[in-house]
Structure formats: C-alpha cells, structure tokens
Amino acid sequence: MAADLGDLNAFVAVARAGGFRDGARARGGSASGLSEAVRRLEARLDVRLLNRTTRSVVPTEAGNRLLERLGPALNEVEAALDAVNDFRDRPAGTLKLNVPVSAARLVLPDIVPSFLAAYPEIRLEVIACNASPPPPLPTSTAVAARGTRASFSTMPA
Asked: With bands split at pLDDT 50, 70 and 90, how would you rate the model's confidence at 33?
C-alpha cells in the first residue's frame, strides 16, 4: 500500500505544528489542502493518525509512531533530492567524444583546458579514430585514469 509523499509531508507538517493552520503556514499551503491530504493518508492506511478537537490537533499513538519514523526518512529524501538538484544548477558527469585523430590533435588541445576549467564537475573521455564514420563509443575502451578528468584513446581505423 503506497502512500503519497505529499500526504506524508502534510501529516508531518500538521503533527509538528500542532494544527492545520500553523502547518499550512509552515509549508506555504492551505489548511484545507493539508486536511484533505491527512484525510487521504488516514483512509489509505485505515488508521486514525491525528486526534482533532476545536482547540488542538494531537497525533494518536499510531501517528506518533509514524512521525518518529517519517522524520528521518523524509530528511533523507530531501537530502537525496538536493543532491540531484545540484545537477540542474551546473553541468556534471562524463562527456564522451568520438572524434577524428586530426580533431583530437588540432582542435581539442585549444578548447579542452578552458572547458574543463569552466566546468569542473565534467569528466571528459575522448576517443580518436581515423575511421569514417567513427565507430560507436565502446564502453570499456574510454576509461580515464584515476584522479584525472580527461582521457584520450586512439583506435585503429
């Protein structure tokens, strides 16, 4: 039985804030939206998570147990999403180029150093080949030496 992450976050916000209005303020949403999300979660789990009165909202025993376990888990999810968001802000990863030997000798030496300086999270793999058209990139040939960000290989034509 899969619970919606948004509904779980809504429950945590309400339980920590002690109310729907304060939880909505903390999350930047509406109290009615949080109420609906918690209602969906309770229906999906088939257990009451919050005791609601006109003056307070307090987690039930089941709600407290869930809150204790969700806090660290949701923090981990948020950290994982933050790590992925770093890729959106700057290019990162491996760039594989399959180029003619002449381009590798004449063009790349002039542009690769400044490119790697501008994009420090990029690792560059270059395969130089005289074949026309160049063969597809092999997965095992273009492996950079440990500690470097660029590797160059030549392949026979």
From this structure: very high
All structural domains of the chain: 5-88 (1.10.10.10), 93-155 (no CATH)
Token pair 């997965």 is found at 139
| Residues sharing a CB contact under 8 Å with residue 107, sequence separation 6 or more, in sequence order | 99
Q: What is residue 135's three-state secondary structure?
A: coil
Nearest by Cα to 130 from 104, 97, 110: 104
Distance separating alpha carbons of residues 83 and 42, to the nearest angstrom = 31
| pLDDT, tens only, 118-144 | 989 899 999 998 866 655 655 443 334
Which residues have C-beta within 8 Å of that of residue 70, sequence separation ≥ 6?
Answer: 8, 11, 12
